[in-house]
Amino acid sequence: MQVRKATAIRRQQIVDIIRSIISSRGIEHVTISEIAGKIGTTKGAIYRHFKSKRDILSLLIDNIEETLMEALDSAMVENDPIQNLKNILFAQLILAKNRRKTSFVVIMGAMQFSDPFIRKKILKLIQKYLGRIEKLLLNAIGLGLLKRDIDPKMSAIVFMGLIQSTITVWSYKNFNFVPQKIHTHIWNVYCQGIGASSDT
């Protein structure tokens, strides 16, 4: 039992280090040697947990998916789909501010890895996230809260894009921003596009 616990802790430690490397320096700096150096162990010790860089990135993506889906679930506390979208936007900005190793930055960094398996896995994660947002938008249209002529798929992509671009810019400024202020501006812009009231 202790061995399993130690293994799980070490694997999570490796994932956290990879997130940090990708978000601060890029995917090209994710090497077994770099990871081992950051942890203070040998490359052989890393290989006891993972067979390859692909295995490490695969676990990282699983970890990111879990984090993103938990953030979505915890933000959706209202019956109003528009309010839930607003909550999700704010939750993502808070997550970026607090963790400084945001999932969106890491996902885009990992996409640069040329391995087809990893790229397919990331695409599946992005599609899952967009599907959740699209479902909220469709619900809002059905309730008459949005313009009926908006494209839910494209609106979901725009929603994710607003978060991604904002977090990317602020990651280069060491996440020196106030989530509440940024949230208000982004939300107002998005609401104008989808025809929703920004006062939700």
From TrEMBL:
DNA-binding region residue numbers: 31-50
Pfam short name (any one): TetR_N
Superkingdom in the source lineage: Bacteria
Keyword Transcription regulation on entry: no
Keyword set, alphabetical order: DNA-binding
Record flagged with keyword Repeat: no
The HTH tetR-type domain, residue ranges: 8-68
Matches recorded under InterPro entries: Homeodomain-like_sf (IPR009057), HTH-type_Tx_Regulator (IPR050624), HTH_TetR (IPR001647), Tet_transcr_reg_TetR-rel_C_sf (IPR036271), Tscrpt_reg_YsiA_C (IPR013570)
A single MF term (Gene Ontology): DNA binding
PANTHER family: ACREF/ENVCD OPERON REPRESSOR-RELATED, ACREF_ENVCD OPERON REPRESSOR-RELATED
Full protein name: HTH tetR-type domain-containing protein
